[in-house]
Amino acid sequence: MARTIGGAAKQRKSVALINFWRVARVDGETSRKQKRRVRWLRINAILEGANTEPYVHNGSFQEAIRPVLIIAQIFALMPVRGISSKYADDLNFSWLSFRSCYALIVSILFLISSGYMAAFVMQVNFDFDSVETLVFYGSIFAISAAFIQLATKWPAVVLEWQRVESQLPALRTEKERGALAYHIRMIIMIAMGCSLVEHLLSMLSSIYYVNACPVMPNKPIDSYLLINFSMFYHFVEYTTALGILGKVINVLATFAWSFNDIFVMAVSVSLASRFRQLNDYMLSEARLPTSIDYWIQCRINFRNLCKLCNVVDDAISIITLLCFSNNLYFICGKILKSLQKKPSASHTVYFWFSLGYLLIRTLILSLYSASINDESKRPLLIFQHVPRQYWTLELKRFSEEVHMDQVALTGMKFFRLTRGVVISVAGTIVTYELILLQFNKADKLAFACARTMRLLPKFEYKFRRWKKMKKSSLMRKLDVLHASAGKREFLEPSEDYVSRKQTACIENMCTRLRLKSRRQFLYNGTFHEAVGKVLITAQFFAMMPVRGVTAQHPSSLNFSWLHVRTCCCLLFIASTVIDLTLTIYKVLDGDISFNNIKPIIFRGCILLVCVTALNLARKWPELMMHWHEIEQDLPQYQTQRDKGRMAHTIHMVMFVGMMLSLSEHVLSMISAINYSAFCNTTADPIKNFFLLTNDEIFYVLDYSPFLAAWGKLQNVYSTFIWNYMDVFVMIVSIGLASKFRQLNDNLLKFKGLHMPPSFWSERRIQYRNICTLCRRMDNAISLITMVSFSNNLYFICVQLLRSLNEMPSMAHAIYFYFSLIFLIGRTLAVSLYAASVHDESRYSLRYLRCVPKDSWCPETKRFAEEIASDLVALSGMKFFHLTRKLVLSVAGTIVTYELVLIQFHEDQNLWDCDQSGYS
Fold this sequence. Notes:
Radius of gyration: 36 Å
Largest sheet: none
Strand content: under 5%
Structural class: mainly alpha
Order of helices and strands: HHHHHHHHHHHHHHHHHHHHHHHHHH
Helix content: over 70%
């Protein structure tokens, strides 16, 4: 019984414990659910707060530059406190802050590394690679020290920037306020992404080297760290800790090298955006009634921006100088290394990516820096829109200040960053490359074949026989039967058939005679009419896919991505990309020489022109409508001779240019046939010809008739486009010059007569409209103009180099000298026709000098000052303007290169059979 009672008591106790833990578990689950609910409500509140209160930009420079400085401080640059704030008042610098100590420590490490590199160069090994490493780490130490110095001035610079920004016209929309910050973020993302890819490729090439040549066997990580900083470990014994420290220093140095350019780009974009902000404000009010006070305030704002530019330039000019000198040195160094054969595919990919990234980064840095000068000159264009009755002395003073001031960043005042400096840098690099290519020993090839070359073998007979033998016996019998049947039908025609054909022929002839009315032989004097046949010819070769080019009115022009013309153009661009890829692979797979670089440049330029022409075709209808509106506002020609003068000139330029181009191509084919007969690799002459002229295709792929036909068609189209881009620049130049001449002919009629101010106001507006048209066309075709001149200059230098060698046959000699003379003549014609735009724009000034004293008024004075101060000319992306002075500069450059080439000339056989660079 006791056991039973005890069992019941234990049972009740167990039930009580079970109930207690059940309640505790339910309460715990309830509390956990409540906590989850509270946490979820907090998250929702945060998200709702984020949705209801989006980030609002204030449009300031400090806000836009903030991510650049945050990233910089991670890598021990720009040790300024308060950079996360939107306002310049929160910025300050202290030598005792953690940022400053971190930057000083890293700068001292760079200095120590540079010292060991200098000791290695002076005591152990003095060669190009060692000096290049010394220059790299020495420049990185200079960059680090320059940023520490800039950090001490940065709060005052940004404070001045904020003061100037507060006085500018306000940015109205959120998009305008956030545009600068977005632009700078995109620069950071792209530049840092490319730098990261470049560094990873560098690591891969080093890893490949370590696997092939291990410095420390069975220790790949230590071997990699050792070669990464090998000059330092020549004096200090290697340890893993020192190896890791060396890698950290290398990563920090690599970032500092790229960040130097990024920082100058960001500052340049910001300064240019502030000038653009003021210019857009003035442009919106230029055609409206304005007061003197308005232009006084605009001039004060412009002066403040110029002073800000000087303050910023004084602070960062050392960094700018290091940017350009560093980039130019390493570009030249990499060009020298490009002549060496790479040990592996990883080295090849890394090298060419690094060189391409460096060139593009330098070009973009130059363009962003030059945009400050471009925007500072833009008010001159805005002042031209101000109506006559609102032109004041304050505007004249403003105009003179803009015209005379040179607002731009500088490199310690040694050079100013305008578009002209880009051409100077490019010329230096090209000159250096030409000299280096003369020292390339890989170009010295021996003449392999010992036979005498014949001019033209019995090619036609072999071609027919080969064509006949390609068919089966059954197909040959069917051909014979078809020919005999056709002959019988021809010999025994029916009378009904003959009469039906005669009637159809008479009706067709009458219809054609009826359609050719007098109206179709008359010209209306428009550029759209004159250029129609030129564009039709271009469309046969997959360029300018615009519909309605032969219509009477430009309103019929339209562009569509789905039209067959556009599809053909896109197909040719894709074909050119494939051809260029095969050419690049062939060149990179072998030794780089002067002769096999030429096809890369040729096909690369063709691809660039095709893409630019496709983009131009999209804008062409709008451009032609704008051109037509300006033409209708000009004084009209009265005779058919005057109206048809421009069209006749354009058609003759097109005809002569294309006929000479066709002659050159035919001579090229004769030379290639002669060459393939001499250096034949197979018994088939057709196959030899295609293997020679399309060597980049069959270097990768096996020979086939389809690929041979594709390669030849690609070559014909590319040759036409290469010549057409020069013809197109000439045609646009003729059209623009004719419009200036049309206005000048009208001014000639009133030369020396007493005319009212309204007459001169009307002519000034017409002159301004033509200048606006010239500027708009220049923006559309400036890249084509740039490619045209640079391409012609390069190939003239190539041909001059080859002229120093003996020609292997008469066919080669005729083709070579015809091609050289045609190329020089074409370049001269492009230069003169393009320069005629500038010449005609200045002729109006002669007639204004003849205005009688009684008729001289403020409007004529303004007209004369605009003509005298404006530079109206086509340009190559604003790097150079096509005037007659440029012709002399190009001739001087060619003579200089010829003299350099003669000094380094050694007899070379550029038509050797073993050399696959004929095409």
